Amino acid sequence: MKNEIRFASIKAICLIWCFMGLIEGNQANDFDVKKYGAKADGKSDDNKAIENAWKEAGMSRKESRAPADPAKFKSQDSWIVFNNVNGLTVEGGTFDGQGAIAWSKNDCAKTGTCDSLPINLAFNKLTNSVIRSITSLNSKLFHMNILNCKNVTFQRTTINAPEISLNTDGIHIGRSTGVNITDADIKTGDDCVSLGDGCQQVNIEKVTCGPGHGISIGSLGKYQNEQPVEGITVRNCTITNTMNGIRVKTWPASTVGVARSLSFDNIVMNNVSTPILIDQQYCPYGQCKAEVPSRVKISDVSFNAIKGTSATQLAVKLFCSRGIPCENVALNDINLVYHGINGTAISECANVKPKLTGNLFPPVCAVSSH
Ligand SMILES: *[C@@H]1O[C@H](CO)[C@@H](O)[C@H](O)[C@H]1NC(C)=O
Ligand SMILES: *[C@@H]1O[C@H](CO)[C@@H](O)[C@H](O)[C@H]1NC(C)=O
Ligand SMILES: *[C@@H]1O[C@H](CO)[C@@H](O)[C@H](O)[C@H]1NC(C)=O
Ligand SMILES: *[C@@H]1O[C@H](CO)[C@@H](O)[C@H](O)[C@H]1NC(C)=O
Ligand SMILES: *[C@@H]1O[C@H](CO)[C@@H](O)[C@H](O)[C@H]1NC(C)=O
Q1: In this predicted model, what pLDDT tens digit does every residue of 234-281 receive, in sequence order?
Q2: How many domains does the chain have?
Q3: Does 53 map to a domain?
Q4: Is 195 in the same domain as 57?
Q5: In principle, which of 14, 236, 285, 316 could form an S-S bond with 276, CB 3.0–4.6 Å?
Q6: Where does the signal sequence lie (predicted)?
Q7: In-domain check, residue 75
Q8: Which position among 172, 213, 339, 370 bears the catalytic label?
Q9: Could you tell me how far CA 344 lies from the centroid of its own chain?
């Protein structure tokens, strides 16, 4: 049943669903399932109406393509939106965002405003749902944005965009509980998976990542009233030729925030520039007061069985906030090798006193700087 969207589980409760026009050259259109007979009252079986709307929009085709010109989207729109559905099952489908023109127009490094292009697939307010075997290609901005979801599993996701594509995070998750990403293969220009504020009980396993910027928690601390991030597990992943491996990033001069109970377990790094990174001075476009410490509190973080090669000498960098040092950070069985002209792999630490067990290479926080 590949390349087909099925709605196996019935009773889409409280359903409002729309998606943008899909056919190359057309102005993007809104499709609202209510126009196809859906009652969206939380009681009726609306799956037939959803299927009809979906077919009408061209989604039964093997590969759906977005309009290439970003001007055909109202700014901040997403191409395809799943909104407010309980018990949804999506199976198969390839979604090509045709992002090349959009990447060339992306000026976010200059302006600091990075959300004015459409996301390929937005999943808002889904509960108890399964999204299986979907492919996102060449998104203009993030490939997939998972927001305000609860108990949703993404199995066998494939994401592909070139390394040079800007801000094309693979899967971004925010303000969601119980999201489970398994067996994903992600090649893209930004973070393979990124977790924003309010992520709780998120499990990421068997993900291959690269090229890209690795798997990230954050960035945190940019906005007011950010919700805590907690209960995050990243395990059995392979990360190859990326800028970072696993990373926690928070802004300096930040708002108050919390990231705790984060576990990174059994991860293979192949030629990753900074395999293990806590960066509480994250300031990608140089537009922050780097000297003011972050107010995001990071605690209960464990790195276990992280092995492979580092593309730079600095394999482990734990830079915590001077204002609120990291608490209860533990590293066990780390083996990250650097094959370069500069010597062997090293670590650098600030404002953290990690608990160290097992075999550790490089030696971690042997000399504390800052
Ligand atoms: C989570 O969602 C799945 C898939 O719809 C469902 O089978 C399961 O019962 C849900 N779990 C909870 C705790 O609601
Ligand atoms: C995530 O989903 C996979 C595949 O369905 C399952 O084996 C695993 O137990 C789930 N993990 C969690 C934490 O829900
Ligand atoms: C993760 O890998 C370990 C070691 O290879 C294995 O024992 C464990 O079953 C794997 N866990 C999952 C959830 O795949
Ligand atoms: C290692 O990574 C660097 C920088 O990302 C890249 O230029 C280089 O081609 C990679 N090496 C291999 C052997 O893939
Ligand atoms: C090697 O060291 C030099 C001088 O410190 C530095 O500029 C360069 O970035 C290092 N190269 C790598 C791959 O770490």
Answers
A1: 999 999 999 999 999 999 999 999 999 999 999 999 999 999 999 999
A2: 2
A3: yes
A4: no
A5: 316
A6: 1-28
A7: no
A8: 213
A9: 31
| pLDDT greater than 90 at residue 90 | no
Distance separating alpha carbons of residues 160 and 253, to the nearest angstrom: 34
SS3 23: coil
Is residue 156 in some structural domain? no
Higher pLDDT: 71 or 327? It is 327
Q: How many angstroms does the Cα of residue 153 sit away from the middle of ligand 1?
A: 9
Q: Is the CB of 151 under 6 A from ligand 1?
A: yes
CATH of the domain at 360: 2.160.20.10
- Shortest-distance Cα residue to atom 9 of ligand 5: 312
In the residue annotation, 213 being an active-site residue is answered as: yes
For the Cβ of 180 lying below 6 angstroms from any atom of ligand 2, the answer is: yes
- Work out the percent of the chain whose per-residue pLDDT is above 90: 63
Q: Determine the distance separating the centroid of ligand 5 and the alpha carbon of 347, expressed in angstroms.
A: 14
Long-range contacts of 101-106 (CB under 8 A, 24+ apart): 101/68, 101/69, 101/70, 102/68, 102/70, 102/140, 102/141, 103/140, 103/164, 103/165, 103/166, 103/168, 103/189, 105/70, 106/166, 106/167
Domain end position, chosen among 45, 61, 77 = 61
Ligand 1 atom closest to residue 87's alpha carbon, by position in its atom list: 5
pLDDT of residue 6: 37
Q: Where in the sequence is the domain holding 5, given as residue range(s)?
A: 1-9+20-61
Integer Rg of the chain from CA: 21
At residue 167, does pLDDT exceed 80? yes
222 and 364 in a single domain? The answer is: yes
Residue 103 lies in a domain: no
